[in-house]
Write the structure tokens for this entry.
Amino acid sequence: MPVHLNNILSISDPVNHKGNEQKLFLSIGFLPDGFLYAILDADAYRYIALEEFKIADKTSGFNHYLSDIQTIISENPLLNKSFQKVFVYYHSPGLVLIPQKIYREQEKDQLYGMCVTPDEEGQIRVDSLNILKAKGLYVIPQKISSLLHQFFPECRIRHYGTALIESILASQKLERWQADMVIHLNETHIEILLLENQSLLFYRSFNIQFFDDVLYHAFYVLEKFGWNAGDLHTVFLGKIAMDSREYETVRDLFGKVSFPDRNDAYRYARAFDDVPYHYYYNLLNLNSCG
């Protein structure tokens, strides 16, 4: 059993576990403070399982984190099924977005190095953002890449931010929901996006320790663009509850605040009814990013 990761959420629908004949898609998320996954019954396009693990001791180190994830993947019966497709997002602060029209593959190392100090133990990866018409450059540690390909040789890896950007822009174009500002919250970091006419004006990830950090970064960004929070429709994604003090605070500060509805392209097992959809927005839309 994992020692340094706590299982904080585990839901599944045993009625839908039909065995190896079932066509399944797996979505996996690597975050600075944990690991999570969701399983989709691709025949019914129905989510049937979701689990999340959080680091219990943040001083335990990267190798212990990886060791626990390896244990989870190898011992969890749900993760030992045969998956037709496996999608992975990895979160790192150093995402560099380059317009597609000026990107040159042979220059990716120089482009990334101009913006971020490269990690000698990692490899630079490139995501295509088809809606944004851009390339996303980032580094994934070699140990994580090796672990993933050990268990899931054909997995499709994306950066957390490129998956988030593409799914949000797709929602705007399909008019599932609209927003001027999107704030995606996790315990250790947030992502802020500014949108105008269904296009992305700004994206950045910020590290946080307290909720006051969220407000500081949000108003800092708005000040740079000359936008007034009271005039905006702000959509919140991630870990913020409607009955929380944090929600009451943002409701008072921003003109209109909302959470997105479930993506109706999917169906959801009954066990998902107890989980606010916006908590796991990025994970549950990952497989639509290709």
Summary: The first strand starts at residue 5 and ends at 12. The helical segments are 62-75, 108-115, 142-151, 160-173, 211-225, 245-253, 281-284.
